[in-house]
Every structure is written in structure tokens, then in C-alpha cells.
Specification:
The protein has 103 residues and is an alpha+beta fold. Helix content is 28%, strand content 8%. The radius of gyration is 16 Å and the shape is flat.
Length: 103
């Protein structure tokens, strides 16, 4: 990644820098979509596929904290019909988590 677009905010910690850069890119994309005319007809779904690729990265996280893959639905068109499944993250909460570093 370019240092101009994604500065090494976390020094030599490449994994943290990659996560921050991808978070910034997703944030920029979501903000761009929200400014487009088609946003009124658009639902954005962001979904992680694993907890982490670096087994040591979360060593400082309490073992009591239940880590989950990230799932976020922004601007849903319908209410959840099947409550037996895991509750979705409220859009405001997921937006705050997504934008944690860039606002």
C-alpha cells in the first residue's frame, strides 16, 4: 500500500497498519456511497470471514471478551424477519466500529 494513502500509523507493526489501511479504505468507500444518488436504494453489507490472521495480535485482549467475526449492515431496507438467528449489529454501532480510527 502507498504510504501517502495509508500512512504507517502503527510504526513497524505491519499487521496493524494493514488493518488500519483497509478500515480507512472501506470507510472512504462507504462515505462515498452514502453521497451518491443511488444510496437511497442501496444496502451495504460488510462481513469478516475470520477473527484474525495473526495469532499473536490479540494477546492483550481479555480471554473473557467474546471475539466474533465482524458483520455490519448499513441502510437495510427491511426488518429482520427471523429472530432465531444471531441479532444483527445495529447500523450506528457498526458504523462507529468501522470508523474507529478515521473520525
Amino acid at each position: 500500500m502507498s504510504h501517502e494513502y495509508c500512512p504507517h500509523t502503527f510504526g513497524s507493526n505491519q499487521y496493524a497498519n494493514v488493518m488500519a489501511c483497509s478500515s480507512k479504505q472501506v470507510t472512504d468507500f462507504v462515505k462515498w456511497v452514502q453521497q451518491q444518488d443511488f444510496y437511497k436504494d442501496t444496502t451495504i453489507i460488510i462481513n469478516g470471514d475470520h477473527l484474525t490472521m495473526d495469532g499473536d495480535f490479540c494477546d492483550d485482549v481479555s480471554p473473557e471478551y467474546m471475539r466474533r467475526t465482524y458483520t455490519c449492515v448499513i441502510h437495510p431496507d427491511a426488518e429482520v424477519q427471523n429472530r432465531r438467528r444471531r441479532e444483527p449489529t445495529p447500523p450506528l454501532t457498526c458504523s462507529r466500529r468501522l470508523l474507529w480510527h478515521w473520525e
